[in-house]
Specification:
Elements lengths: L1 H15 L18 H12 L21 E2 L4 H14 L3 E3 L16 E3 L4 H14 L4 E7 L2 H16 L3 E8 L8 H14 L4 E5 L2 H13 L5 E4 L7 H4 L10 E6 L5 H8 L10 H11 L17 H4 L19 H5 L6 H17 L15 H10 L1 E4 L2 E4 L10 E9 L2 E11 L4 E4 L27 E5 L6 E5 L4 E2 L9 E2 L4 E2 L8 E2 L1 E3 L6 H26 L4 H5 L2 H19 L7 H33 L5 H8 L3 H22 L3 E2 L10 E3 L2 E2 L5 H23 L10 H24 L4 H29 L6 H12 L4 H4 L1 E3 L13 E4 L4 E4 L2 E4 L8 E4 L8 E2 H5 L4 E3 L2 E3 L1
Parallel strand pairs: 1-2, 2-3, 4-5, 4-6, 6-7, 7-8, 20-22, 24-31
Antiparallel strand pairs: 8-11, 9-10, 11-12, 12-13, 14-15, 16-17, 18-19, 21-23, 25-28, 26-27, 28-29, 30-31
Helix pairs in contact: 1-13, 2-3, 4-5, 6-7, 13-14, 15-17, 15-23, 17-18, 17-23, 18-20, 18-21, 20-21, 21-22, 22-23
């Protein structure tokens, strides 16, 4: 058909007067697809008197044949081109696509009206990449075309991240003794491989045999056809071709020609010439050979495949050479001959330029040397069938490829164009409405992959080849936002990602939000504590003259309330986004406020401790001298103020700038209590030391009656404080993120402990306890124990004390009406009752204590005397 297309186009040029006064002739030889036969044909074409002279210089070589069209296969063209290099006779092919022929240093005389397979393999690799086929098999022929195309595809496949599951080679010629065995082996390899896409760089004959094996074993794959068989009508008409699966391929640009179809319907030799091919075809089609269809056909009969060409009306014709029909048009894809027609047109345009033809005549030398035509041909530019054509620097056309799909048409296949590949911009243009054959093309499950795709948030960890990999999650601070990436991207500034994330986000700020439940609860507790202190303060003022309030030391208690109020207020500074001023204020407020409160508790504990001590010892008398409440409170609080001042100067609290943990999206905003935390530790340790001292003093004076002391409340409140802060320290050290809310909670618990232990019991006594004065009840009990005549019947024995008639250097016993001083509280005693008051005899500033404070509950009668 291609030969007839060349003949028809030559005749069209001759009859159209395209070359005025010049007619193109042709000499046609069959290479039988053998390079050696093709070389023999070249010698025949150039021979003069059946011989070809050997010359050292063929510059002026002027054979009748100026150019050779062909060959069909690249292997044959390569052999012929090497020979024609000697004579500088151009060789123009419309089917040989081997990349090797683009090398103008080795093949300067070769040109072609198709692109090089370099472009075809790029198109195939790009198409595989676009459909996410990265695990493919390749079967190629053992010839120049197959080997060159394979090497080109390997390079392009690597650039497009396509890997080869296998690459198998088949003998180029079917008469090889191992051809069929090798086809069986390759078929088994295809069946056993996990690859679902197979690229076949083979001649049509080899593909036909391979497909027969696929049909026999019911094997279905997606087949990618090279240009050598992408439009093979014989394969498309095979029985069972629909069983092999989808077939997709690239083919050279084609075009329809009505005049050529009419020529095939009316085949005849050129008048005055002859054409053995046409004669042979008409004999096969119209010659009556009925005996050839018998069970035992004669030896001269054609093969069964050729008998299929026979017309059913062959025996009704007398002269087969006179017969014609439309069989060739229907049986063949005549558009495949388009580029052969283009090749003839290129030659005609080059000759027209070389002979300087116009519309009426050609003025150049007709018997020109072939190299001049080669030179002109490489520069020619012309238009044919509404398309522009020219050769590039390598002598190739750059008109691209058609992407075709073998669509099912009954039991056979037909060719459907679904797109085009542009050589210049290296892009595939798809016809959207025609691409309906790949149901998996737009899904996330590709048709042929060695490994599952890696989703965003992960990257490929290559195993043995680049397409076989494991998916590894991106580490913290990195991400991937697309499928199948090789490297994780770093998060931009001020953003972060966790492991396996596909995007980066700004870290959310973590601190005690005003609107969060926990801070709201703590603020409510602090506000309630301040309100409770205010109510307690009012109660203390209103009932300041009542005995419970007198024993509670109203002025000292008011100072404690002020310290607790400051402590409660410091909790508010723990809320909200920290600032350097809040960080400093909250610690100083707590330190000074709670120290003030604890110093007052310490005074109470010290007073109770002094009441427990015996009076006679020198050391104890000295300890009594230090009982100065205002001085103690001021000194103790001032020391804490100095500690805080030094802390602020040398190691001041500020904002913690430590980088957040990579495993979290939280950007923690919190205060750092100094670079070394030494000041913070000293501050807390100082308060703890005061609390411990107060606890020990109260514990020592625990035997003093509760009616005159607060030892139980002091012990419990100080234990509560120590317990709370001992629990706080490990949490603060091990989990600094929770240090802020834990410290605020500890302040609240400690402050409420003071309120519940020191203030609320007094309020209870004021409102609900007995109004009877406790001292009066004890003194009445004393009168019962004493005899009516204390002077005659009872001797009062005071250990280490002087009698009423004796004068001691320290104490005296008075029976007169006086004022009872108990814990610094003045209380009037009735003169009718027995008054025993221990008063200091010297001017030393030692508080006087009522006898009952020293008596406790141990009052007995022994030998008409009372011991205390």
């Amino acid at each position: 058909m291609r030969s007839l297309a060349a003949i028809h186009e030559i005749e069209e040029i001759n009859t159209s007067g395209f070359l005025p006064g010049v007619r193109l002739g042709y000499l046609m030889c069959d290479t039988c697809a053998y390079a050696s036969k093709a070389l023999q044909n070249v010698g025949h074409m150039f021979a003069v008197n059946r011989s070809l002279n050997v010359e050292c210089d063929y510059t002026d070589f002027r054979p009748r044949v100026k150019i050779i069209l062909g060959a069909l296969y690249s292997e044959v063209s390569i052999a012929v081109a090497r020979l024609l290099n000697v004579y500088m006779v151009p060789l123009l092919s419309s089917t040989s696509s081997s990349p090797e022929l683009s090398d103008k240093l080795r093949y300067p005389v070769f040109l072609r009206t198709i692109p090089s397979d370099t472009h075809q393999t790029k198109a195939v690799a790009k198409m595989m990449h676009s459909y996410k086929w990265n695990w493919v098999g390749v079967v190629y022929g053992d010839d120049e075309y197959g080997r060159a195309a394979l090497q080109s595809f390997l390079k392009d496949a690597e650039e497009n991240s396509v890997c080869l599951a296998y690459q198998e080679v088949l003998p180029s010629y079917l008469n090889d003794s191992r051809s069929m065995q090798r086809i069986m082996e390759v078929a088994q390899k295809i069946r056993s491989s996990s690859s679902q896409v197979v690229l076949l760089i083979l001649k049509a004959e080899l593909v036909s045999f391979l497909f027969k094996e696929m049909i026999r074993t019911n094997t279905s794959r997606t087949w990618i056809a090279s240009d050598a068989w992408s439009r093979s009508r014989s394969i498309a008409q095979m029985d069972g071709i629909n069983k092999v699966g989808d077939i997709l391929g690239f083919t050279f640009i084609t075009g329809e020609s009505e005049s050529f179809d009419n020529y095939l319907k009316n085949l005849t030799a050129t008048p005055g010439g002859y054409n053995h091919f046409i004669e042979e075809y008409k004999n096969l089609r119209f010659n009556c050979t009925s005996e050839c269809f018998s069970n035992k056909p004669p030896p001269y009969c054609p093969t069964p495949d050729l008998l299929k060409i026979k017309s059913v009306n062959a025996c009704n014709f007398k002269d087969p050479q006179e017969q014609n029909d439309d069989y060739l048009v229907k049986a063949l894809d005549t558009s495949e001959a388009f580029l052969t027609k283009v090749a003839v047109r290129a030659i005609a345009n080059a000759i027209k330029n070389l002979l300087e033809c116009n519309s009426s005549a050609c003025f150049g030398e007709i018997n020109f040397p072939p190299w001049k035509l080669l030179k002109e041909l490489r520069m020619v530019k012309f238009k044919f069938d509404n398309q522009n054509f020219s050769f590039d620097k390598n002598g190739d056309f750059e008109n691209g490829y058609d992407l075709i799909m073998w669509e099912k048409d009954g039991h056979h296949r037909r060719f459907q164009r679904i797109g085009k590949y542009h050589v210049l911009d290296k892009q595939i243009e798809l016809d959207g409405e025609n691409v309906t054959w790949l149901s998996t093309a737009n899904t996330t499950t590709p048709l042929s992959r060695c490994s599952d795709p890696c989703a965003p948030g992960s990257v490929k960890k290559i195993l043995n080849v680049s397409c076989c990999y494991n998916c590894t999650l991106c580490e913290e601070g990195t991400y991937t936002d697309a499928w199948d990436l090789h490297d994780c991207k770093k998060c931009p500034n001020e953003t972060w990602s966790l492991k396996g994330w596909s995007e980066c986000k700004p870290r959310w700020e973590s601190y005690l939000q005003w609107s969060a439940p926990h801070p709201i609860t703590m603020m409510a507790a602090a506000a309630f504590g301040i309100l409770l202190l205010l109510v307690t303060f009012i109660i203390f003022l209103v009932f300041r003259d009542s005995p419970p309030m007198k024993r509670a030391e109203v002025r000292l208690s008011c100072v404690m309330m002020a310290g607790l109020a400051v402590s409660f207020a410091s909790v508010i500074c723990f809320m909200g986004k920290p600032s350097i001023h809040l960080c400093r204020a909250r610690q100083v407020m707590y330190a000074m406020g709670f120290t003030l409160c604890v110093s007052c508790v310490l005074v109470k504990a010290y007073r109770t401790f002094l009441a427990f001590l015996p009076f006679g010892q020198m050391t104890n008398r000295r300890l009594h001298k230090f009982y100065k409440p205002p001085v103690i409170v001021i000194v103790v609080t001032t020391v804490q103020g100095i500690i805080c001042l030094l802390w602020l100067i040398f190691d001041s609290p500020d904002i913690d700038h430590t980088l957040p943990s990579p495993q979290t999206m939280k950007k923690i905003f919190q205060c750092r209590e100094g670079a070394t935390y030494i000041g913070f530790g000293i501050m807390l340790s100082y308060i703890a030391l005061l609390a411990l001292v107060g606890f020990l003093l109260a514990f020592k004076g625990r035997k003093v009656p509760q009616e005159f002391s607060e030892t139980g409340y002091i012990i419990f409140s100080m234990l509560m404080y120590l317990f709370v802060w001992v629990c706080f320290i490990p949490v603060y050290i091990t989990n600094k993120e929770e240090g802020t809310p834990v410290q605020a909670s500890a302040i609240l618990v400690s402050s409420y402990g003071i309120i519940f232990c020191h203030f609320l019991p007094k309020c209870y006594e004021v409102f609900w306890a007995s109004k009877t004065d406790t001292m009066e009840r004890i003194l009445k009990r004393w009168r019962v124990i004493s005899s009516p005549d204390l002077d005659s019947e009872t001797d009062i024995d005071f250990p280490r004390m002087s009698t009423p008639s004796q004068k001691s250097d320290r104490f005296s016993i008075s029976s007169t009406s006086t004022i009872l001083r108990s814990s610094g509280t003045l209380s009037e005693v009735s003169p009718t009752d027995l008054k025993l008051v221990i008063m200091p005899m010297s001017n030393e500033n030692i508080p006087a204590y009522s006898l009952s404070n020293r008596l406790g509950t141990k009052v007995t009668r022994r030998r008409r005397s009372i011991s205390f």
